[in-house]
Design brief:
The complex is a heterodimer of chains A (556) and B (354). Chain A is mainly α. Chain A is 78% helix and 1% strand. Chain A has a single domain, classed as Orthogonal Bundle (MetI-like fold). The two termini of chain A are 30 Å apart. The chains are: A mainly alpha (556), B alpha/beta (354).
Chain lengths: 556, 354
């Protein structure tokens, strides 16, 4: 196995633009070759980790400001507790939404199944902050629901109880409803690909459908579900826009407040360390859990189990349930935004340049982060020892709020004496996208790799396929399903990215997210709706493609 | 076969992205020396169409090109800090004296002794050494339900802390600089302890947890969830000027007043202002630009969309702003909004005002 490593390194290094000299002697020097092939992934780790490290270093190396003492004594515990509470609730909501939906769709035939199959991924196109604007408007005391309620009942706003979106559970709901597709995708894939033999064995032993779900399918699918959940929770932890809009005091909000109100970016960076620690804990916990549970299936019959028919009442219930999920997580907030747009006939001029910058930055960021994620995934396939470290570094970037990475970038900018304009600014911005989102690309690729039999490498070698040819003809096709999903997810995530883009974009590169945010901070929500809707629309195409692709792969 | 298709699809995405990279996106170059035309770079925390129109007028009038970076004030500040001597910024425009003070405190602004500006801008609306100059005024006041309260019952800020207001108040979170600047003036006038006592009492009188923006507070009054709210005047004006009937009804069913601290103290006024940076290449051009904002034309455009009050008394009020009741402005030097800002946030935190 060690023989091929230098060749792999060549194909990978050529993708990150570094040339390595490679002599024939390497074949007899396995130690040296190991270090050579580890260079590209190590470079990528450095690339991904540097902004996080710079932000933390800038935070810790400067002395305690007055604010740090205040935050540490009075706010750190409440911020952390609120964050954990919100994450716990989001996790519960995401599981409650995604797992039943994924189970029904993968195992049963019912009306609308083929539509729900892909449509339940649509909320991924919706940024958390846009979801918060829309639901706050729907649910607010002056919104259509409560206004109608008061009209019907004649009550005043203080006479009745109504679910309060401006609360920790409200924030958890908003975050969960945009992020549950991550859990849904992984859960559906896991259920679809369950070993037929396992399910058949359980059936033949007389397991009822509920038992089959609860005692067989869930334990087997749990590692995949936990993986998706982990990704979603890291994204939720880094949220600022939705939490700030809803007035919930999470660490994300505390970080921005330390920076803006207290004027102490170093305190912000220290608080970010707490978030990164939480994310790291999730990842390690998930890893331990997956390590314990992940290897139970021995049958290699992976074909999708036949979907069973449902009794009519159950089919209607399943239809109603999925419809409700889809309405809540996508169509109601979307419709409200469209309604607001039409009602106010708000103008938002000059959107074309915004659309162009959004797409160009999204494509450049996604392409670069994709390469980084590919290097990560293929290299850690060879270097077991790099795997956890690499993923932790990527996770640190993913869990750090964009604003903190932005501060890290500004720190590096200052140290290098550059001005934030033109190509340099774009370079920094792309770099931060890579640092922030590589994890979102690595996870689907890893999920694909984890399913592959380990002996494929040996098989390709024994057929004489090595090096660049191995990369093109074996590695890439094998990782393609995951890589395709990764590319689309990266593109959508970067379209939605706000804080780092806000901080680092050069002149003339405003994105739709930046404009929507600018209008929203001026409390001109009606004007914010058009750019916000355009972000969702731009994200829909890749999300639909992703959805189609995933259902294809699960069918074959 | 399918693998091949996936591969091709993935690669074409990559290629497309790379093609997009090389697409000569026409970013304006920031290098002022290369262009024959003088360039004035503005870092602005505002995002209004009327500003764009006004900037275009200045370009035409002066022959200079304006490069504008719009972002949050904190982001702009951090960007300038990072850019250091390399910063292209010539002029900063930011809402709230507290924000402007922070640019000054970070050593990013330079004092300007301009007779033209000093003649126009009242002394307390410009920084003592000329580090920044007000270009528009904004008032933090009280929106209320006129069926519930008389203006006399809300005429002073301390009246919001009284027991009869229990469960009646709506207000946004203290992340927002408007609340910080109000608190800063309270600290300036009455000291830390009294200011914290006031904030604690306000928290006790809240009808709900701080949430949403100022507009949301006014809507909550109209919906009956509370009967008074601390808001900036222009949010109330904009509701009245909205295209939708629902918003107009909200404005019509509420009133707005401008409270004092004690009788005769004058009222809390804030500004949107402009500052010249330490890295400005062409001081004359920068000064001309700020002076242009303070012309009749400049004033009417600066306030047209925002519904702020012009800094010049001579400029006609923007549509709808005449509904703000007459008030006497406090003569507090606005420097204190910045100086007390961190303390204000700390006291809010201690008072439990999220």
């Amino acid at each position: 196995m060690a023989r091929t490593k230098p060749k792999l390194s060549v194909c990978l290094t050529s993708r990150v633009g570094i040339k390595l000299k490679r002599g024939k002697a390497e074949r007899s020097m396995p130690r040296l070759t190991l270090s050579f092939s580890a260079i590209p992934p190590l470079l990528v780790i450095a690339l991904v980790g540097l902004p996080v490290f710079a932000a933390i270093f800038a935070g810790v190396s400067t002395g305690d400001g007055a604010t740090w003492t205040h935050i540490f004594e009075n706010r750190l515990v409440p911020y952390t507790a609120t964050t954990l509470w919100v994450l716990f609730l989001s996790a519960a909501i995401m599981i409650a939404l995604a797992v039943p939906a994924a189970w029904l769709i993968s195992q049963y035939e019912f009306p609308g199944r083929s539509i729900f199959n892909w449509a339940l991924i649509l909320p991924l196109a919706m940024p958390g902050y846009v979801m918060a604007y829309a639901w706050a408007d729907v649910m607010g005391v002056a919104g259509p629901l409560q206004t109608q309620l008061r009209e019907w009942t004649g009550l005043s706003a203080r006479d009745y109880w109504f679910p309060n979106l401006f609360s920790a559970p409200g924030l958890a709901f908003v975050l969960a409803s945009t992020l549950f597709p991550y859990v849904y995708i992984t859960a559906r894939a896991a259920f679809s690909m369950q070993s037929l033999a396992t399910l058949e064995a359980a059936r033949s032993l007389g397991a009822k459908p509920f038992d089959l779900f609860w005692r067989v399918a869930i334990p087997v699918a749990a590692p995949a579900i936990i993986g998706g959940l982990c990704l979603a929770l890291m994204e939720a932890a880094a949220d600022y826009g939705a939490a700030d809009f809803l007035g919930i005091q999470t660490l994300g909000v505390g970080i921005i407040r330390s920076w803006t109100s207290f004027g102490e970016p170093n305190t912000a960076a220290r608080l970010a360390l707490m978030l990164i620690f939480i994310a790291g804990t999730f990842l390690v916990a998930a890893r331990i859990f997956q390590g314990q549970r992940g290897t139970q299936q021995t049958s290699v019959r992976w074909r999708t189990p036949q979907r069973s028919d449902m009794p009519v009442w159950a089919g209607i219930s399943a239809f109603a349930l999925c419809t409700a999920f889809l309405l809540i997580c996508f169509f109601v907030p979307m419709s409200r935004l469209i309604w607001l747009l039409l009602e106010h006939q708000a103008r938002a001029p000059d959107l074309m340049p915004l659309i162009r910058s959004t797409l160009i930055l999204g494509a450049m960021g996604a392409a670069t982060a994709f390469v980084a994620a590919l290097v990560f995934s293929l290299a850690t396939k060879r270097h077991e020892s790099l795997r956890l470290g690499a993923r932790l570094v990527a996770a640190a970037g993913y869990a750090a709020p964009g604003a903190v990475l932005g501060l890290g970038a500004l720190y590096i900018l200052r140290e290098t004496g550059q001005s934030l304009s033109g190509a340099i600014a774009i370079g920094f911005l792309i770099w931060i996208y890579v640092s922030r989102f590589t994890s979102a690309g690595v996870e689907p690729m890893q999920a694909t790799l984890a399913r592959l039999p380990k002996n494929l490498d040996q098989a390709s070698h024994s057929l004489g396929v090595t090096g660049l040819r191995q990369f093109w003809r074996v590695d890439l096709p094998l990782i393609a399903p995951g890589a395709f999903a990764a590319a689309l997810i990266l593109f959508v995530e970067i379209l939605k990215e706000l804080p780092a883009t806000l901080m680092l974009r050069p002149f003339g590169w405003d994105t739709l997210a930046v404009r929507a945010h600018a209008y929203a901070t001026d409390e001109r929500l009606a004007q914010a709706t058009l750019p916000a809707l355009l972000i969702v629309l731009a994200g829909l195409a890749p999300v639909l493609l992703l959805s189609w692709r995933l259902s294809q792969s699960e069918r074959t | 076969m399918t693998f091949k298709i996936h591969m091709i699809a993935g690669l074409s995405l990559l290629v497309g992205a790379v093609a997009a990279c090389s697409n000569p996106a026409d970013t304006p170059t920031d290098d002022a020396t290369a262009a024959p035309q003088p360039v004035l770079t503005i870092y602005s925390s505002r995002h209004y169409d009327s500003d764009k129109e006004l900037f275009a007028m200045f370009e035409e009038q002066s022959g200079a090109r304006l490069d504008v970076r719009e972002s949050g004030a904190s982001q702009l500040l951090e960007t300038m800090r990072a850019e250091g001597d390399q910063s292209p910024a010539d002029v900063i425009i930011a809402a709230d004296a507290g924000s402007l003070w922070r640019f000054q405190d970070a050593g990013l602004t330079q004092p300007l002794s301009s007779a033209a500006l000093n003649n126009v801008v009242p002394a307390n609306y410009r920084e003592s050494d000329g580090n920044w100059f007000g270009v528009a005024r904004r008032i933090r006041g009280i929106a209320y339900d006129p069926d519930r309260w008389t203006p006399e019952e809300l005429a002073r800020w301390d009246l919001l802390a009284s027991e009869d207001k229990a469960g009646e108040s709506c207000v946004r979170s203290t992340s927002n600089i408007y609340n910080l600047s109000l608190m800063s003036e309270l600290i300036h006038r009455y000291g830390n302890e009294a200011a914290q006592t006031w904030a604690t009492a306000i928290v006790g009188n809240m009808a709900r947890n701080p949430q949403g923006g100022d507009t949301d507070q006014i809507r909550a009054i109209a919906a009956g969830e509370c009967s008074l709210a601390i808001v900036n005047h222009y949010y109330w004006i904009r509701l009245g000027a909205s295209e939708t009937e629902a918003d107009q009804l909200v404005a019509a069913s509420t009133s707005f007043l401008v409270p004092e601290f004690v009788e005769g103290s004058g009222s809390h006024v804030n500004i949107t202002g402009a500052a010249v940076t330490t890295t400005a290449d062409d001081l004359k051009l920068a000064e001309d630009f700020i002076a242009f904002l303070l012309t009749e034309t400049g004033q009417s455009y600066v306030t047209r969309d925002t519904k702020e009050l012009p800094l010049l008394d001579t400029t006609a009020l923007p549509d709808g702003v005449e509904k703000v009741p007459a008030f006497v402005a406090s003569d507090t030097q606005l420097d204190v909004y910045g100086e007390n800002q961190a303390e204000a946030q700390r006291l809010f935190d201690l008072a439990g005002w999220n």
